[in-house]
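User: Design a sequence. Structure:
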């Protein structure tokens, strides 16, 4: 096992090397790099198992290196050692799979423990990767991907069957009189444990499901199971024999799922059609049967197509509760948020029946609400940005208007788009029986809205701090102000103040200070009794020439020209 230490300071790299008993961790090689670009080249050449990296470096920083490793899916354990207690850096570390975020000066015990966990995690994951690779090979031998694509095309392209009909007849021992019946297995009830297990290897999930099904279908050639390449939530079962035993076969497959994966699924049963021309119509009937099944109670897992079934009417809509949700979030009150969610859930509980089709409609409506709120905030950001860039604005006026001009995408998204809050908002949970879990949905929805409210509250507090800094500058512009002075006054890091001030005001803190000083200087220049040097000194400039240079930059003319005009 090898480790790569990435830091632009050699003495830090040497300290890390000296602080750790590498042999006790089973680590044989320890390599060094001075920045992310050097590290990338070493990783491609040596493929180390663990990377220990700083975040602030020239050429390519630690965030860029972590993103590069993550984009290539490299099985590397990542530890960050940084001198900056910065929320954005911590969040980037978590986003790109970092295991630990350690602060300088380095604590030897913390470093040793982080490396021990990283080495242990890598060995565990390596064992799982090798096991999954072996299973992939075995499953590829059992189920040719070619037939998956052929059967998927039969569903989506009705005219394609003429070109493959003879091959199908020959491969599966069928003829022109053969019929087929499609069954759709819906994997929307996958347990959370299995979802996490197969999150990064969806192919293995489909391999597992289709192989279990084919154990019951292929031995006596009653049909075949295949992956439907158009959908990430369906497996297709095609029956062309023993139709009278179809439900019995499905029950055996269902039991096979329970035994092998400890999970059950629902089956939509299509109509009996000519093979292969009828694969598409039978699939659509099976899918409709699955989407129209009740999710309030699991009376059965096998749902046959009913052509006369009508969608339920009079269901509540998220749009009708939008204002209730919006006001609850704006209030920031957990009680108000729970009350708003409770009103929605009471409307859902009052329904006599509820289909998967209806849940899908709700999911889209919640997504539309999220997008609408985001668009409203985006409009506010654009308006604020315009106000912040106006040359005629006052020094403190833009604080409230420009507050949302930050580059952080999540900070401007009230629904948490792309975040855990956004996902939870549109996700409608089903339990392992395929039924709607009302308690879990209520908690998930409440938690999502609470996270949105908390983030908005945090943003308001942050904007208030930046407003206080702006007022502090306006009150003390005549003094010798430095970024370090301001950081000490407000107990924040210089880097954090500099970054967030620019995001909110649209200009550097130093430019803001200079602008305030020049505005004050313009007023003083109206007094002919004051010399230019005196004006410069009174607004915080100790050097008259530098004052004139800065004045011309912001006013467009020199102090003398301004006074004459």
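Assistant: Done.
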């Amino acid at each position: 096992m090898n480790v790569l230490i990435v830091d632009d300071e050699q003495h830090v790299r040497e300290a890390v090397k000296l602080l750790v008993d590498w042999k006790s961790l089973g680590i044989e090689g320890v390599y060094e790099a001075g920045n992310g670009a050097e590290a990338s080249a070493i990783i491609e050449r040596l493929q180390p198992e663990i990377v220990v990296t700083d975040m602030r470096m020239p050429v390519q920083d630690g965030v860029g290196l972590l993103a590069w490793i993550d984009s290539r899916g490299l099985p590397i354990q990542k530890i960050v050692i940084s001198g900056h207690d910065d929320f954005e850096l911590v969040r980037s570390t978590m986003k790109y799979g970092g295991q630990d975020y350690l602060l300088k000066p380095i604590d030897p015990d913390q470093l040793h423990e982080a490396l021990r966990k990283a080495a242990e995690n890598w060995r565990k994951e390596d064992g799982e990767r090798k096991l999954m690779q072996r299973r992939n090979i075995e499953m590829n031998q059992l189920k040719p991907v070619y037939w998956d694509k052929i059967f998927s095309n039969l569903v989506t392209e009705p005219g394609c069957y003429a070109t493959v009909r003879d091959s199908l007849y020959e491969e599966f021992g069928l003829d022109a009189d053969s019929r087929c019946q499609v069954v759709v297995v819906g994997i929307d009830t996958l347990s959370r444990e299995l979802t996490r297990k197969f999150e990064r290897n969806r192919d293995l999930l489909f391999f597992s499901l289709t192989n279990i099904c084919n154990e019951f279908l292929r031995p006596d050639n009653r049909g075949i199971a295949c992956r439907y390449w158009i959908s990430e939530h369906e497996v297709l079962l095609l029956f062309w024999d023993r139709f009278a035993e179809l439900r019995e076969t499905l029950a055996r497959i269902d039991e096979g799922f329970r035994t092998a994966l400890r999970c059950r699924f629902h089956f939509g049963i299509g109509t009996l059609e000519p093979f292969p021309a009828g694969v598409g119509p039978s699939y659509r009937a099976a899918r409709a049967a699955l989407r129209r099944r009740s999710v309030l109670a699991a009376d059965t897992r096998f749902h046959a197509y009913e052509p006369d079934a009508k969608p339920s009417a009079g269901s509540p809509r998220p749009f009708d509760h939008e204002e209730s949700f919006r006001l609850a979030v704006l209030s920031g009150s957990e009680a108000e948020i729970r009350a708003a969610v409770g009103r929605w859930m009471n409307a859902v509980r009052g329904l006599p029946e509820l289909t998967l089709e209806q849940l899908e409609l709700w999911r889209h409506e919640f997504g539309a609400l999220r997008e609408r709120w985001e668009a409203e905030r985006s409009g506010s950001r654009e308006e604020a940005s315009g106000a912040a860039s106006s040359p005629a604005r006052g020094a403190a006026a833009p604080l409230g208007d420009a507050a949302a001009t930050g580059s952080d995408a999540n900070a401007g998204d009230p629904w948490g788009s792309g975040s855990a809050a956004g996902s939870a908002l549109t996700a409608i949970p089903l339990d392992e029986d395929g039924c709607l879990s009302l308690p879990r949905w209520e908690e998930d929805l409440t938690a999502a809205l609470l996270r949105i409210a908390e983030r908005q509250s945090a943003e308001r507090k942050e904007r208030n701090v930046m407003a206080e800094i702006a007022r502090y500058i306006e009150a003390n512009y005549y003094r010798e102000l430095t970024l370090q002075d301001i950081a000490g006054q407000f107990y924040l890091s210089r880097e954090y103040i500099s970054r967030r001030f620019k995001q909110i005001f649209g200009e550097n803190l130093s430019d803001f200070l200079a602008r305030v000083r020049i505005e004050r200087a313009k007023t003083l220049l109206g007094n002919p009794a004051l010399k230019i040097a005196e004006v410069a000194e009174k607004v915080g400039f100790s050097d008259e020439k530098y004052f004139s240079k800065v004045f011309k930059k912001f006013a467009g003319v020199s102090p003398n020209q301004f006074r004459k005009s």
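The two ends are 74 Å apart (CA to CA). Residues 380-419 have pLDDT under 50 and may be disordered.
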